[in-house]
Structures are given as structure tokens and as C-alpha cells.
UniProtKB/TrEMBL annotation:
This is Aminopeptidase P family protein. It comes from Dyella dinghuensis. Keywords: Aminopeptidase, Hydrolase, Protease. Residues 17-216 form the Peptidase M24 domain. One of its GO terms (molecular function) is aminopeptidase activity.
Amino acid sequence: MTHHDREAVGNAFNPALMHHARAKSWDALNAISERMHPGIREDEALAMAGEVFRELGMERLWHPPYIRIGPNTLKTYRERSIPDVQLGENDIYFVDLGLVFEGHEGDVGDTFVVGDAPKYAACAQAARDLYRDVAAKWRNEGLSGRNLYNYADERAEAMGWRFNHAIKGHRISDFPHSVHKGGDLGDLEHSPSSDLWVLEIQIAHPNEPFGAFYEDLLTGAAL
């Protein structure tokens, strides 16, 4: 598959609308985080997220939302959550959204902590810091997708966290991006173009049952 094939877009593609979808997706994610509270279960959180999506005028989902609490923060999107896990008084959770606004796909994710939980807070911040480190490496050096994920693995280990190799990033564009079969960012042999690829970072504590997740669109401007 050629470079062009892996970065193909539809006739409706508009970078400005990609940024609009991104901004609205972050609005949704932050609104969800503001409504999370100790005692809520993942299924209840997902029902609440649906209310947020309607309030913000989301057109549709392009992937199901994921809200993972406590030990489920170790799970990837392919894995089922341990059922009936509730958010504790001092706990960690992440939110992963794939939403469509104005015919364009947003894909964002972040990790949050409630209460007094320094270990959890350090993990959540490490995922954000690692994302920004890797994204800066792409902007400054133009590394291929494969080399970006090799770099992320090395940096996570140096920071004291386990890197989840099953999460490799992916394409988005005007809906539906899936017709273009862009594949995983972590398998891309060239430098990804701006506004087309999502960099996903998932890490875990080296020996305790929790982790953190962060993702956002790779863009030419730093966060």
C-alpha cells in the first residue's frame, strides 16, 4: 500500500472540520469527567456520556465510548471490563471517545483521578507527558509511525512505566475513515501527515493493577 493509499481521505475532507471535531470531542470528554463521582459504575457512566453527546449535538459515534475504572484501566478497547467496578473515593479512570461532528471524526482520550491518590495522579500525568514527548519528536524530527512507537516504548521504560504494545494509534478523517484502510500508526513506515493520525499512549504501573491512557490528533501545533 502506498503512502497516498494509507493517507487517503474522502471528497468532503476539510482540515478545519477535523479541528472542529477534535475541539468538540474534548468538550464532551471534559463534560463527562465533570460528572463522574465516587460510586458510579462504568455502565452508568456510559449512560451519562450519552446525555453529554446529545447536549453537544454529536452526529454519531464512529467507535463506542470507553470509560474504564480502577483495574479496568489496564484494558484495551478490545478487552471486556471486569463487571460492576465502581469508582472509589480515591481512584483512577479514563475516557476514550470516537465522535463525529460535521461529518468529521474526533478521537480523544484522557485519564483522571478522584480524591487523594498520588500514585494514580502520577500515572495519569505520565501518560500525558509521554504523549507530548512523542508528538514533539514527530514535529521536530519527522520520525515514521513505527519509530515513534519504538521511541514511546523506550521513554515509558525510562520513566518507570510499562508500555502497552497492543495500542498503536490509527487513522481518522471525514467519516468513515475505515474505507481507506489506513492501518495502525505504529506500523507506518513513513512520517505521518498532520491532521490524519491519532497518537495513542497506554501505560501501566510496573507491578500494581492500574494504568493510564491518553490520545489526541497529531497536529502541526503543540498542545
